[in-house]
Amino acid sequence: MLTFAVMKSLFASWLDLLLLFVPVTIVLELLKADHLAVFISAGLAIIPLAGMLGRATEHLTTHVGAGVGGLLNASLGNAAELIIALVALREGLHDVVKASLTGSILGNILLVLGVSMLAGGLKYERQKFNQTAAGMGASLLLLAAVGLIVPALFHFTAADRGVAIERELSLEISFVLFAIYIMSLVFSLRTHKHVYVEEGHDGSNLVEKPWSRSESITVLTVVTVLVAVMSELLVGALEHASKTLGLTQLFVGVIVVALVGNAAEHSTAVMVAMKNKMDLALGIAVGSSLQIALLVAPILVFASYLFGTPLDLIFTPFEVAAVTISVLIVGFVSMDGESHWMEGVMLVGVYTMLAIAFYFLPA
């Protein structure tokens, strides 16, 4: 059973008011309501659930130590996005899956980091962060971009080799990306963990009393099930909702679905930046993008073979260009080890321009 203290801290954020949309979504689905209403309601319900997943993981890390805690945060940090993508993958919506991956990467390194720098910069004239850790993150992001570029280049230069070869290439690149992700964990949690001390996320930032191990696991289990149910309803209504709104599935995947899955992390990064903890804000934004590119994307490719419809990593030229440009911009912004509000404005501006372009892209 969950104690009153756990229930109180579970519903500590104003975003948690959106939990009302969990029963609302279920009722709408049972009543066979309009697909657009179900889509909007399910999306709003996932936002606080994703935040609860992060909160429960943070509490659980206080019982397993910093090393395993870091691994848990890395593994469960993007659980909501992974569940949504797996449901879409099972439904055969490969374009939506790839678009949501692109959107998560762009949303984290441009919108989340940009708003964090803007909010923190309005309060503090100059905010400093660990230059070495930021440089490592930027380098890994560039490598992740290469993982997207290579399959696309192969597709446009050697498409005559056939779909089977392209899928095999994507699978092998996924193994490489996954291996690099494991090595990055060894680097940050073992051999060079002193570099990442500033951005430690092992539960020491908790204000309230840590939950017990059983309470943390109970919350994780219940919330994961609810996220899975809401994701099922969200994806089921996605196609009809996008047609009703006159939006392409590419735009819905890159912008809408990505924002829904990342909303909780958005608010966390902004709040810690306003407390002058730019190391942690940068770690959340860049770290989440790295998890998407190096962990979630390979897992989805592996899982697609279980569903019988292999997923490739051939993104559209515009998606590849958008990710590459964004990674380079973030690299330039973070190279000096400090930030101010104008850098935040620039990052948000780039995200806005890309979002407008995705809106006008044909289906």
Describe this structure in words.
With 363 residues, the chain is mainly α. 78% of the residues lie in helices and 1% in strands. The protein has helices at residues 4-10, 21-30, 35-76, 79-90, 94-123, 131-158, 163-191, 213-245, 249-274, 278-306, 317-334, 341-360; strands spanning 127-128, 338-339. Helix 6 runs antiparallel to helix 11.
What is the strand and helix layout of this fold?
Elements: H1 4-10, H2 21-30, H3 35-76, H4 79-90, H5 94-123, E1 127-128, H6 131-158, H7 163-191, H8 213-245, H9 249-274, H10 278-306, H11 317-334, E2 338-339, H12 341-360
Antiparallel strand pairs: 1-2
- What is the terminal separation in angstroms? 49 Å
Shape: globular
The major pleated sheet works out as: 2 strands, antiparallel
Number of helices: 12
Oligomer category:
single chain
Mean pLDDT: 83
Biggest sheet strand line-up: 1-2
Low-confidence stretches: 198-204
- Structural class by sheet pairing and helices: mainly alpha
Global Rg: 20 Å
Report the count of strand segments. 2
Secondary-structure element pattern, one letter each: HHHHHEHHHHHHEH
Percent in strands: under 5%
Question: Fraction of residues in helices?
Answer: over 70%
